[in-house]
Structure formats: C-alpha cells, structure tokens
Amino acid sequence: MTQVSLRAAAFCATLSLTALAAPVFAHEDDPVPANDAATGFTVTTTDLPPLRADGHAPIGVMGEHRHKRGEVMLSYRFMHMDMRGNQIGSNNVSNDTIATTVPNRFFGAPGQPPTLRIVPTDMQMQMHMFGAMYAPNDRITLMAMLPYIDKQMDHLTYQGGAGTTVLGGFRTKSEGIGDVKVSALIGLMESGNNKVHLNMGVSLPTGSTSETGTILAPNGTRPTVRLPYAMQLGSGTYDLLPGITYNGGQGLTKWGAQLSGVIRTGKNNGYRLGDQLAVSTWASYQPEPWISLSGRVEARTTGDITGRDPLIAGPVQTADPDNYGGDTVTLYGGFNLMGQRGALRGHRLAFELGVPIYQKLNGPQMETDWTATLGWQLAF
Predict the structure, then answer these.
(1) Using alpha carbons only, what angle is made at residue 287 by residues 284 and 292, rounded to the nearest 5 degrees?
(2) Angle at 301 between CA 297 and CA 305, to 5 degrees
(3) pLDDT, tens digit, for every residue of 306-317?
(4) Interstrand relation of 271-272 and 253-264 (parallel, antiparallel or unpaired)
(5) Structural domain harbouring 13
(6) Number of domains in the chain
(7) pLDDT category, 48, cuts 50, 70, 90?
(8) Contact 200, 69 (CB under 8 A)
(9) Region label for 200, one of left (φ > 0), alpha (ψ between -120 and 50) or beta (otherwise)
(10) 122: buried, middle or exposed (CB in 10 Å: 19+, 13-18, 0-12)?
(11) How are beta strands 291-302 and 118-134 bridged, if at all?
(12) What is the CA radius of gyration of the chain?
C-alpha cells in the first residue's frame, strides 16, 4: 500500500469517528420489534429479551468481536497507566544507584557526564481512544481507532558529574493525536458458540515524533531539547497489526483468547521502535443479564529500539534506545454493564484494572504499577 493511500485511509478513519451517537435502532444482539396487525399486539422495548452484558470481551481487548452485516458500533475508551520506580531486569534499582553507577552512552560528547545524572521517577499516560466499527457483510468487520494522548514524566537531576547531591526536579509533558489504527476482522470459523477471526491492521504514523521540553541539566542550565522516545506521541513508522482471536462460551460463562503483534516497518529519524508480541486469555461470568464479571491474563514481549534519533541525547536512561522493551505478565479484573430498558438499552459501560505480576525490563527502565480502562460502546 502506498504512502498516499495509507494517509487517505487515515483521513477517512478520522472522519468516520466524528459521528455522534444516535438512538439505538437495532443492537447486534437485539431482535427487531414486531407488530401483529391481526391481533393488535405490539412488541415494546419492555417485551424484548434481555441483552447480554458479556456479548463483548473485557474492554482492554481490542478487535475481539465482529458484527452482523450493516451494523455500526461507536466506542470510547479512557485509559490510564501509572509508572513509578525503576528496574534493571526484574530487580528494583534506586535513583542513587542509577545516578552513580549506570554508564551514560553519550559520555565523551560535550557536556555529557560519565553516568546517568538525570533519573525519571514516575510517569503517567492518559489516552482517549475513539473507535468505530462497521460490518459490510457477516464475515468482515472494519475497525478504526483514533487516540488522543497525554503524557507526563517527573525527573530528579543530580548535581555535577558525580555524587548523590540532588540539584532539583522537573517535569516534561507531551499531548496530542497518536497513531491512527485501521483494521479488518475476517471470520475464519464459526461453530456453535465457538468463533475464530483473523485480525489484519495497520498503524498509521499520525502521532508526533518531534515533541520538545525544557529540562534541568546537571550543570544547572535549563535547555529545551527533543524529548526521549517514551514521551513521543507516535511511532513514526507504518506498523503492521496481525492477530488471531478466539471466542467461546456456554450458558452464563464465556471465554476467549487473542494472539496479536506489532511489526514495525521502515525507520523514522534514524530509529524504529521494537516489535511486540502479546498473548491474552480471558473468561467471564454473567450472574445477571445486565452485568458480567471478567478476569484476564496477558503476556507481552517487546523489543528494544533499533537505531537512534540524533537529536535525542542526554544523561538519562530514556535517551538510550537499549533501555526499552522487555517481558511483562499482567493480571486484569473487570466488569461489563449493559443497559436493558429505554434510552439506555444497548449502551455498554465497561471497566478493567490491570496489575503486572512479572516484569523483566531492558533497563534501567521505569516499571508499570497499574493500568485502568473505562469504556463505552453502542452498536446499532
């Protein structure tokens, strides 16, 4: 696919996401009301069977379901990630240890000390994800996702080239549109309650990779520099998003699994982010039609950065491409709520909280403390 056609796809996806939510005409699991002229009997919304809260997987799983021909679904997700403290491999490491013992790969360049004299202490990332899905037929569902990202990172700066005297602290921020993702979900198999579909997508480089901020240097100056890779809003490359998803269930219980990847292509400003591979499995129980409770486990591996942006340099771990990527296992718990009556019928509200139970990081690198996703979905 050419660059022009990919950017055209990004424009179309973005345009489609501007539609406002309309009244529910027919939910994906909702039978159409019928009238019987002979008896005068009319089916009302209160006569309709209950909608299943577990009709979708946990809200943190993307591209996990397809729709029937002609259906549209609009969605919104608010995601928060909190990172505090640092690790090297699977071991915690103190700020003082990083500042006095971890080599600075840029040492020898003008003004660069021998060790990492700037240490990130915590980071928060918030994302507003606007999504739309449309099924041109029963086998294929098209999906587009537009993120708006807000990042901030706090640092400690150590004075001079040695010692543990803290000069002060500072915060960097970046905010804006991230990389737009467009995908096709293609059904492969459907037998009873068991369904398998293929995920085929591409991530478009619509997010900025040239964000800047003012820092506190070890010599006491406050220069404005290009922010490290973790604070940029996009990958800068066209990325392939392959995957395969399984859904099954029986009675009040449902389950599923997804294998997904991110394959980076090309380079941006001399570098390419690491590829990713993730496996996620989940199960849910629906005690009542309006609520389902879910548990999920995800294992993810991410490679480090290939190459380097020549404008990103400094005595801080986030400026080193080798200090990215690693292996994580995260446990999630959540719930889905499904509106059953009146104007709320068909509206799904969902929440999921995740806590890592294993992190082995290419470090030093900040560890993730927790993540949370709150979402809304409406199909018609």
Answers:
(1) 40
(2) 150
(3) 999 999 999 999
(4) unpaired
(5) 3-379
(6) 1
(7) confident
(8) no
(9) beta
(10) middle
(11) unpaired
(12) 24
Angle at the Cα of 245 (from 11 to 128), degrees rounded to 5?
40
DSSP line for 203-236: EE--S-S--EEE---TTS---EEEPPGGG-SS-S
- Say which residues have a Cβ less than 8 Å from residue 154's Cβ, sequence separation at least 6: 120, 121, 122, 123, 169, 170, 171
Report the b/e string of 161-172 with b at 16+ CB within 10 A: beeeeebeebeb
Q: How far is CA 51 from CA 56, 251, 286, in A?
A: 11, 14, 11
Burial class (CB in 10 A: 0-12, 13-18, 19+), 269: middle
- pLDDT per residue as tens digits for the range 96-118: 999 999 999 999 999 999 999 99
Ramachandran quadrant class, 298 (left: phi over 0; alpha: psi -120 to 50; beta: rest): beta
Backbone torsions φ then ψ of 322, nearest 5 degrees: -75, -15
pLDDT tens-digit series, residues 262-273: 999 989 999 999
Indicate which CATH number applies to the domain containing 324.
2.40.128.130
Whole-model pTM: value is 0.85
Tokens of 179: 């990389």
